[in-house]
Amino acid sequence: MQTPSDQSDQQERHDYPAHWEADVVLRDGGTARIRPITAEDADRLVSFYEQVSDESKYYRFFAPYPRLSAKDVHRFTHHDLVDRVGLAATVGGEFIATVRYDRIDERGMAAAAPADEAEVAFLVQDAHQGRGVASTLLEHIAAVARERGIRRFAAEVLPANTKMIKVFTDAGYQQKRSFEDGVVRLEFDLEPTDRSLAVQRAREQRAEGRSVQRLLTPGSVAVIGVGRTPGGVGRSVLSNLRDAGFAGRLYAVNSAFEEGTRVEGVPAHRAVASVAEPVDLAVVAVPADRVPQVVAECGERGVQGLVVLSAGYAESGPEGRERQRELVRRARSYGMRIIGPNAFGVINTSPRARLNASLAPQSPARGRIGLFTQSGAIGIALLSGLHRRGAGLSTFIGSGNRADVSGNDVLQYWYEDPDTDVALMYLETIGNPRKFTRLARRAATAKPLVVVQGARHSGIAPTGHAVQATRLPHATVSALLRQAGVIRVDTVTEMVDAGLLLAGQPLPSGPRVGILGNSESLGLLTYDACVADGLRPLPPRDLTTGATPADFRAALAEALSDDGCDAVIVNAIPWVREDNVAADPETLAGELRAAAAGCPAKPVAVVHVELGGLAEALAAAARTRPDAPAAPSGGSEPPAPAPAAETAPDTGAAGEAAHSHRIPAYPAAERAVRALAEAVRYAQWRREAAEPGKVHEYDDIDESGTADRIAELLAREEGRRGLTLAAADAHELLGRYGIPVREALPAPGPDEAVEAARRLGYPVALKTTAPHLRHRADLGGVRLDLADEDQLRRAYQELIDLFGKPAELRPVVQGMVPRGVDTVVRAVIDPAAGAVLSFGLAGAASELLGDTAHRLIPVTDREAASLVRSIRTAPLLFGWRGSAPVDTPALQELLQRVSRLVDDHPEVAGVSLEPVVVAPRGLSVLGASVRLAPPPARDDLGPRTLPRY
């Protein structure tokens, strides 16, 4: 491609696009920064090029090219940011890779818009090849190109450059490939496809999961800030690491230490730079004002990640918040990820790691539960509670201010972690609800995810957390999470209760619950609790107070073998044998475990009242699970990463069988029932998720015409943040998606109302459209079934007498439609949660009770059917008390069409259809409004990026 010299000398035509800057996680879990190349980067470019091998230079320029000329440097650092763009990936402020595109015409010559093709080329430093740098840069340069009106990339690659060919072919775009004059030419459209999006998200999962794995499975740890005397944060963490038997190398760092000495048997050093061997993880426990120096030393030393326990950051006010931003920026610039600051620490009980880099005084037993918490105090409570209940952990992360590593990252890790069967999360804020919901939905198809969200009703985020603002009420966000498969509970006690059941028992196949025990009253309480939680209890079986452990075993085996029973709750109270010797709880526990082991896999829970030792005896099986082979003592190599998988990890029958003997025990029937009810709902969600439905394609949708019309409407209002369309424009736009809106004619006076009725035909409706009366038939602002001119004039006068002048009422006349149920359909783009579709019945009662259901867009056919049935007043749609059922298939189709409109066109910021009258046959949309706004520069379909700081 030729580039005229005068074009390379022209001034930049656009301001610096700061929104193109991004921190990214690479394939190996390290980070890099992507940003536009500017004129100030000349020296960096030259230095970068000098470190590239001759072979890589040859692949880039198709000829020996040992050094860049001054003209080359100028051309590669001066861009107009429209027709010529260059991006660089940097670590430590230095280039590790570059990519650029140049807009071309059909002859391959330099061009300007409206030409929509560009030539793209990469150069990656040899030391950083294989880290996924080029594929990440391709995502970002493609997003930039689309923003600048480029729809297609072309690349010429030597056949021997197989790595670069693979970068293009693996990206998932529609491609055309040719070979001419010894060069492979690749052409591909930049419009995201299902495959390109799947590739991007699979890479995101592997990279972010690997970044957490590096923090949890280090081969060596340095604790920076270890005190010279016992006590203090640093010394406590060092002791916890040593006492847990950390499988790698351990170092204590304090500038006051003498080199060559030891602290608690651990080698001591004055600085991390003094450690001769590689350091994978640094635990930072120094005052906040010394942390920047420590971060720089760790970055220069090649440390992979940091756990910052130090406080004094965003939780302390505006100055601390800026200190936190700088901490993240500095760490990321060196390719490091951070847990914290103000963190509680991390734990990994795997024998390959035996890592307790936390302030928890006692390492938890090894188990199958992963725990993430944003609060140190809640972390202590949860660790203690799980320990008391005999439950072990796989991993624990106490993230503190979660300035960098968040719950989203940990979900990416847990998704493929073979040691974690159940994930528990205490979240005070969700920084990116849209992404969290997406990740949770995928994770929940493989393993249960139980979430407690703190600060639900205060409306105030904890001071240490940076979060996106959301306009959705907490109840809506919770509903969206449940639809993603998240098990939402209200308290940490409920979270532990549910976690114990899910970690130790198979999922129930239905809601039918058998109840047995030696207390009739406790059985009845359990029955009532099951009914209240939506379960279907079978009649309780009373074994009487004289029942022996053998009786319990026989009764449990019989219940588990019953095809009409999906789960069993066992109630047990103290009993005394005939010889006045109290029965041994361990004997009962053994009998219950034996019964469960010898019967079909169904969940069992025990409710015990004043029966000391039973819970511990039932939990004993969890502590007898054989460990995996331990790593060699003092192993210097970190554990090998888990293999990446394109499908969900297998946690089916084999995993369930391994835990079938661990029966959870509860001190109250309500707690056991609530945990079981959550398991039943989750199991039902998983069965439905296995057949998610499809997003329908409708032949009568005019997608391209709608896009052109939206662009035209927004162009009229250039410079504004958005606009609500006039009624005619809104109706036209909706009509392009097969959503007709009944015509309503303005009636500023009685004569105009009569003329409108003549055009529409009688009978008609007369209604006000004033904001305070709109959609409020209960206030008397609507008159229906007006059969002739006399009735219309009389109704018009009544409205004026009641509410005021026509200019205030804004009356309209509309033709009558078949009677049915009045409903409301809305879609809104929330800045945090994304596009949300809502449905409910019209009227003050539904609004007052908050009886509205929500789904994330795009909505499948199954989700549309579920949405209609999710509201409490849904029976009114299906023939309640003898009324005629309405046309719910037509309603479900309308929901899907609205979903398609919003999903296809991100400029559609809001749609409101009210009322939608659903009749026994068909439906009628009587009122509609549409709001447009420029789409965000980047969204969840954009290139991978870490949260901006």
The major beta sheet can be summarized as: 8 strands, mixed
**What is the total tally of β strands?**
39
Q: How far apart are the termini?
A: 38 Å
Multimeric status of the protein: single chain
Percentage of helical residues? 25-40%
Average pLDDT, rounded to a whole number, is 88
Radius of gyration equals 32 Å
- Which residues sit in consecutive blocks of at least 5 with pLDDT less than 50? 1-12, 621-660
Measured by DSSP, the beta-strand proportion falls in 15-25%
Q: How many helical elements?
A: 29
Q: How are strands sequenced across the largest beta sheet?
A: 1-2-3-4-5-6-8-7
Q: Output the structural class.
A: alpha/beta
The gross shape turns out to be: flat
